[in-house]
Amino acid sequence: xxxxxxxxxxxxxxxxxxxxxxxxxxxxxxxxxxxxxxxxxxxxxxxxxxxxxxxxxxxxxxxxxxxxxxxxxxxxxxxxxxxxxxxxxxxxxxxxxxxxxxxxxxxxxxxxxxxxxxxxxxxxxxxxxxxxxxxxxxxxxxxxxxxxxxxxxxxxxxxxxxxxxxxxxxxxxxxxxxxxxxxxxxxxxxxxxxxxxxxxxxxxxxxxxxxxxxxxxxxxxxxxxxxxxxxxxxxxxxxxxxxxxxxxxxxxxxxxxxxxxxxxxxxxxxxxxxxxxxxxxxxxxxxxxxxxxxxxxxxxxxxxxxxxxxxxxxxxxxxxxxxxxxxxxxxxxxxxxxxxxxxxxxxxxxxxxxxxxxxxxxxxxxxxxxxxxxxxxxxxxxxxxxxxxxxxxxxxxxxxxxxxxxxxxxxxx
Length: 413
Description:
- By secondary structure, the protein is α+β, with helices and mostly antiparallel strands.
- The protein has a domain at about 5-195: 4-Layer Sandwich (Glutamine Phosphoribosylpyrophosphate, subunit 1, domain 1), CATH 3.60.20.
- The protein has helices spanning about 5, 70-75, 85-90, 135-145, 150-155, 160, 210-230, 240-250, 270-285, 300-310, 315-325, 355-365, 370-390, 395-410, and strands at about 10-15, 25-30, 35-40, 45-50, 55-60, 95-105, 110, 120-125, 130-135, 180, 185-190, 195, 230-235, 255-265, 290, 330-335.
- A 6-stranded antiparallel sheet has the order 2-3-1-9-8-10, covered by helices on one side.
- Helix 12 (about 355-365) crosses helix 13.
- The radius of gyration is 21 Å and the shape is globular.
- The two termini are about 20 Å apart.
């Protein structure tokens, strides 16, 4: 693959001032005055009427309309676009990996897919020009920003970073005084450079198990079917519950999917995460592709990889390098990681008596970082009222907005 396509692959940058230095990227305007640059492989869709403009980066899926593409879904959302809240709520049944900008002439906001998998980082009011991007390194290189002393001392020099193979920052945090991460379930008011929670806003409807089973099954199956009408799909399979569930949900389109498992680190053909899916798929008459990801990055790829995202993981680099030559690049991978949100991940057996920043930091395995504790305490202060009022368990919200809303997008990038 052309190395220029790998540079900041499928990323974007939006600025209040003109941007250069990204030859071959798509260019456009948002709200008429913001300059957008998007990687050539990042889908960019825009629809307008006399009063409203919707801009979509990435792809969006409607499980109830399998024949609709991104533009069709945006056209339908226009029915709910008279105000910000109506539009956001109209997207809550939609999946995909996307970021949306909404301009109604009075305000310009940005919000993303339910788990915030299409990340957005933005400059706060300590910076003159407004910029937002898929990851903080793009903004930092444009504005010549450096890591803050607070981040160096209270995160980079602590076990939370040094001792974790898959280190990550909690949602909202960055290593720069000037930059902020937009959390899942929040929208960004671009004019104010402030983010606001939009979910939960009402108590979750209680339904019985049998009804829930039918509804969830339909959503999963229909979402996969709708995605298969748009893309060639691939599905990574391990011994985990979530991927085996997706295999079941994809049974109507088995013949169109590339099922695979990554063999990396210490895994071999006898490891459960390889042996179990191989046995399962073979018994169903489905070809199982095992991708050997033990190759080491060459120097050209290593340079691109570590420039691709702030704090790129060395432990993931060899996997990414190996996938480049083995994974079918034309296929969209469907992952099941977000299912943990609804599975009481942090309290399967007993709910903790005390929940504070220290306890959340322990759950995140980031002990020893004052920056993480500080971020978690701040998040709790902001999140408790909405969680209590709407009877959402704070630990479910924590897993959703931090583990899925920060660690998982980092993995995607």
